[in-house]
Amino acid sequence: MTAESGSRVERDVLALAKTLAANEFPVERQSVIGVDRASGRLVRLAPFPWKGNDTDPPLQKWAWLQVTTVPDARDPRLETLTVDGEVFVTGYVDAKDAWRLRWPFVRPHLRGSLESLQGLARERAASAGFVRPAEGDVVQLPLRYRFRCASDECTATHELPVLDWELAEMARKSRERFGQQWATRFRETWGSRLLEKYDVHLLLSSYAQSPSKFYVAGLFYPPREAEDAHQHLHHEEHRRHE
Question: CB-based contacts of 25: which residues, under 8 Å, 6+ apart?
Fold first, then answer.
């Protein structure tokens, strides 16, 4: 549903990622990056009205949000919109059948490499998109992701800051649970082994203050093989208790 009143637009947005704020240059406001149902394009809802570490109740990735948005004249990025009013959760896209229902929202926004996405950002044609890494690993303190794109366009190994709420939250929980061993245990789950088990894609976004610089805004990681019904129920139960 899309309803317009002047510059105010009511939208249905599928939340693909939740991002943290960055308080040092380049500064970045907390956001939700998602897909607008009506147009199919990526949108960045910033600043998103978090309460504490997250919304209350917590906002899930892959939830449908009904929001009213207005343009943000201070943000040069094409996708950025400001939330005006309340946020309503209206649905959820399930992960069953190897994320079959989720892929259509990601596929149109695949880019070959960070380099190609940087070129689009310079032209102000796009400031966010998904890139598939051929290899990758997490680096701690501060949290960063080191990777090489799965494309001949890629000219170097990249190391980008991580503002993805999910990955940062998993790092926090690992510190609480494993103490001094947290970094090793965290990398065992979210480092290079993740790429062995899952078809990982990185959602990358540029900064408003520095459009040529990018950060990791989210991870998309469908299984390499379709889950059977038992596996799906197990993973859903695990997700509810995270």
Answer: 209, 210
